[in-house]
C-alpha cells in the first residue's frame, strides 16, 4: 500500500484520468465508480465521492468544507484494444497503491499517445478479415464472402481518416456505399441475404455494446447514463438505416428487398466455426490487440457462439442471445482475474458484436422504415438486446456470488459538516475511558508508518458504524 497522498489535487487528477480512460474503453459507469472508490482507498482517502457519466467525470476529495471538486469532460474518445490492456494493467497497480499518482498521470498520457502495433495495411486487412468472418455467420455464401471482404477492406481504408467532423457523418456514408454495392450486385450474384451481407462491413459501427451497456446501467439504477447511452445507440442505428434506405431509394428496390431471407446452406457445416476464427483474427489485427490476448478473445467468442446456437435450439432466435451472454459473461470475468488474462472490456466487445444485437436492431429498424410490416421486427430486435443484457446481468451476479459472496445493501447516510461534529461533546463515560476520542487520558500513539489503505478502511468502517 502507498502512504497517504498529501497532494489531493494530484490524486484527483489521477482518478479523473483513470475514469476517463475507462469511459473510453466503454466501461459501465457503475463499474467505473466502484473502481475509483477502491483506488482512492488504496491511497488512504476514504472521503472520495465520484460521479460518472458517459462524457463527464466529477471527483470530490475531502469532507465538509475541506472538500475539493475536479471535473473532466471528453467526447468521441475511444481506446483500441492495446490501449485498453495497458489501461487495466495500470488500474490494477493503482488498486494496490503501487504507483505514485503523478507517475500514473504520466503513464496515462503515454497510453493515450500509444502508437498502433500494426501499420495501416495490416489494420485494413484485419477489418476485411473481420467482415468476412461475420458474413460467414450471417449470410454464408462464397460470393457473399468475397463481396464482404472487398467492402470490409474499403471501409477499413476509409476509417484511417481521423477527423472529428467526418466521424459524425461517416457511418451514414459507409452504410450508403455498402448498400449501394450490394443492391447493385444482388440481381447477378448468389449472395444470400442482402441486408445481412451489407451489415457485416458495418460491424464496427453497430452499437451493440453501447445498447447492452445502456441496459445494464439502467438495471443498475444509473438512469442518466443508461438513458443517454441508449438514445445514442438508437440514433447511431437510425443513421445507419438512413444510409441503407437512401441507397435503396436510388436503386429503386421494393419493400421485399429489406426483408431478411433464409441463409443459404450450400457451404459445409464447419463454416460457422471458420467464421468465428476469422472474426477473432480480424479483431486482433484491426484493433491492434496485444498478442497474449488473442487466445482469450477466441475462447470467449467460441463460448458466446456456442451458447447462442444452443439458445436458438431451446428458446428460439429472438432471445438466443440471452443464453450466449449468460454463458460467456462468467468466462469473461474469470479471464480478467487471471494473472496473464485479459481485461473484461477487451473480450466483451468482440462477443457483443458476435451476438449481433446491433445488427438485429439495424435489420428491424430498416424494415420498420422501409416496409409496412417492420414494427414487429423492430420489437424483436429490442427484445434481443434486452435478452443479451439480462444474460450479462445474471452471469455477473452468479460470478460475484460464487467468488465474492453477497454484497452489502447500501445504506442511506448523510455526512454532518466537520465543523459541527468537532463541537459535539462526547458523553462523560466515554471521556473517562482510555483510547476514546477526547479522552481525559489522551490519544494512544500509533506507529509512524501505519498502512494508509488499511487505516482508511478502518476509518470508513467507524464512520459507517
Describe this structure in words.
With 465 residues, the protein is mainly α. 64% of the residues lie in helices and 3% in strands. The protein is built from 19 helices and 3 strands. It has helices at residues 8-24, 29-42, 81-95, 101-112, 120-138, 142-158, 164-185, 194-199, 208-219, 223-251, 271-286, 294-315, 320-337, 344-355, 357-370, 375-404, 418-423, 428-431, 452-464, and strands at residues 49-52, 56-61, 68-73. Strands 1-2-3 form a 3-stranded antiparallel β-sheet. It is globular. It starts with 7 loop residues before the first helix and ends with a helix.
Chain-wise SSE layout:
Elements lengths: L7 H17 L4 H14 L6 E4 L3 E6 L6 E6 L7 H15 L5 H12 L7 H19 L3 H17 L5 H22 L8 H6 L8 H12 L3 H29 L19 H16 L7 H22 L4 H18 L6 H12 L1 H14 L4 H30 L13 H6 L4 H4 L20 H13 L1
Antiparallel strand pairs: 1-2, 2-3
Summarize the structure.
The chain is 64% helix and 3% strand. The chain contains 19 helices and 3 strands. Strand 2 and strand 3 (68-73) form a beta hairpin.
Poorly predicted regions are 1-6, 406-412, 443-450
Neighbour order of strands in the largest sheet: 1-2-3
Largest sheet, strands/sense/barrel: 3 strands, antiparallel
From the spread of the alpha carbons, the general shape counts as globular
Tell me the span between the first and last alpha carbons. Answer: 24 Å
β-strand amount: under 5%
Order of helices and strands: HHEEEHHHHHHHHHHHHHHHHH
Residue share in helix: 55-70%
Class derived from helix and strand content: mainly alpha
Number of strands: 3
Counting copies of identical and different chains, the oligomeric state is single chain
- Round the Cα radius of gyration to an integer and report it: 26 Å
DSSP summary: helix tally: 19
Amino acid at each position: 500500500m502507498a502512504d497517504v497522498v498529501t497532494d489531493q489535487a494530484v490524486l484527483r487528477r489521477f482518478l479523473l484520468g483513470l475514469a476517463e480512460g475507462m469511459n473510453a474503453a466503454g466501461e459501465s459507469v457503475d463499474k467505473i465508480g466502484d473502481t475509483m472508490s477502491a483506488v482512492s482507498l488504496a491511497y488512504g482517502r476514504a472521503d472520495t465521492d465520484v460521479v460518472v457519466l458517459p462524457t463527464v467525470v466529477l471527483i470530490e476529495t475531502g469532507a465538509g468544507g475541506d472538500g475539493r471538486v475536479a471535473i473532466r469532460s471528453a467526447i468521441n474518445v475511444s481506446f483500441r484494444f492495446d490501449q485498453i490492456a495497458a489501461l487495466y494493467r495500470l488500474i490494477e497497480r493503482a488498486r494496490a497503491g503501487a504507483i505514485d499518482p503523478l507517475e500514473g498521470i504520466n503513464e496515462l498520457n503515454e497510453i493515450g499517445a500509444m502508437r498502433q502495433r500494426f501499420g495501416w495495411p495490416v489494420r485494413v486487412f484485419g477489418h476485411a478479415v473481420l467482415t468476412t468472418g461475420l458474413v460467414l455467420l450471417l449470410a454464408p455464401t462464397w460470393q457473399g464472402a468475397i463481396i464482404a471482404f472487398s467492402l470490409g477492406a474499403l471501409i477499413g481504408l476509409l476509417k484511417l481518416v481521423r477527423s472529428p467532423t467526418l466521424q459524425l457523418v461517416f457511418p451514414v456514408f459507409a452504410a450508403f456505399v455498402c448498400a449501394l454495392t450490394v443492391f447493385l450486385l444482388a440481381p447477378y450474384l448468389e449472395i444470400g441475404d442482402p441486408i445481412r451481407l451489407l451489415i457485416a462491413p458495418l460491424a464496427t459501427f453497430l452499437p451493440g455494446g453501447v445498447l447492452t451497456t445502456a441496459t445494464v446501467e439502467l438495471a443498475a439504477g444509473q438512469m442518466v447514463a443508461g438513458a443517454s447511452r441508449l438514445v445514442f445507440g438508437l440514433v447511431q442505428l437510425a443513421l445507419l438505416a438512413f444510409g441503407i434506405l437512401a441507397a435503396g431509394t436510388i436503386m429503386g428496390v421494393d419493400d421485399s428487398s429489406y426483408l431478411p431471407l433464409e441463409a443459404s446452406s450450400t457451404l459445409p457445416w464447419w463454416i460457422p466455426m471458420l467464421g468465428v476464427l476469422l472474426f477473432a483474427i480480424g479483431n486482433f489485427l484491426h484493433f491492434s490487440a496485444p498478442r497474449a490476448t488473442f487466445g482469450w478473445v477466441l475462447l470467449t467468442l467460441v463460448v458466446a457462439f456456442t451458447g447462442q446456437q444452443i439458445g436458438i435450439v431451446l428458446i428460439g432466435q429472438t432471445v438466443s442471445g440471452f443464453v450466449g451472454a449468460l454463458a460467456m459473461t462468467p468466462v469473461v470475468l474469470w479471464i480478467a482475474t487471471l494473472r496473464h488474462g485479459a481485461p473484461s472490456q477487451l473480450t466483451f466487445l468482440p462477443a457483443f458484436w458476435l451476438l449481433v444485437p446491433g445488427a438485429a436492431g439495424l435489420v428491424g429498424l430498416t424494415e420498420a422504415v422501409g416496409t409496412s410490416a417492420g414494427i414487429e421486427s423492430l420489437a424483436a430486435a429490442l427484445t434481443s438486446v434486452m435478452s443479451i443484457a439480462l444474460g450479462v446481468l445474471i452471469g455477473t451476479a452468479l460470478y460475484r456470488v460464487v467468488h465474492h459472496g453477497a454484497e452489502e445493501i447500501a445504506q442511506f447516510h448523510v455526512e454532518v459538516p466537520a465543523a459541527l461534529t468537532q463541537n459535539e461533546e462526547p458523553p462523560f463515560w466515554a471521556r473517562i475511558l482510555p483510547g476514546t476520542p477526547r479522552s481525559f487520558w489522551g490519544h494512544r500513539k500509533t506507529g509512524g508508518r501505519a498502512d494508509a489503505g488499511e487505516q482508511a478502511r478502518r476509518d470508513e468502517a467507524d464512520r459507517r458504524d
